[in-house]
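User: Second chain of the day. Same drill as before.
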Amino acid sequence: MRPKKTILLLFIIFLSSLAHAGNVDFFPEGRSKYTITTEGSSIIITGDNEEKETINIDTESKLNIEIADYNFDGNLDFSVWHMDEGMGTYLIYRVFIFKPKIKKFTEANPNCGDEFINLNLDRKSKTVSSTYFKNNTPRVCHTRL
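Assistant: Same format as last time:
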C-alpha cells in the first residue's frame, strides 16, 4: 500500500473513533448543567461543581445517550443504551434518575427482569414499559420510576 493511502486510511479510522466519543450537555432541573461523556464502554457524568462520576457499561457495542423525564417529575433524567451483543435485535437500557435534593443521578431498575429491554415511555400511565422474558417468552413490563 502506498504511504499516502496508508496515512489517509489511518486518518479515516481516527475520525471514526472520535465519532463514538461524544458529549451531551443538559440541565436536569433547569439550573445546574451536567455533561455526559461516552468513552469506550464507560460514561462520565460531570456536574457544575466539576465532580465526576464514572459508570462502566458491560458491553462492546457503541453507547448512546437519551435525555428524557423517565419518572415524570419535571426533571430531566438520562438513559444509556446499546444493541444486544447476540443477534443485535434488542436495545438494552440503563436508566438514571435525577435526584434534585442530592444533585445526583441514581440508577433505576425494572419491576420485571434484570434490565430494561426496548424501553418506551408511557405518558398516559406515567410508567416505562420494557420487554422481559419468562420461560423464553417475551412479555411487557410496566415500571413506575
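The radius of gyration is 18 Å.

User: Great, on to the next one.
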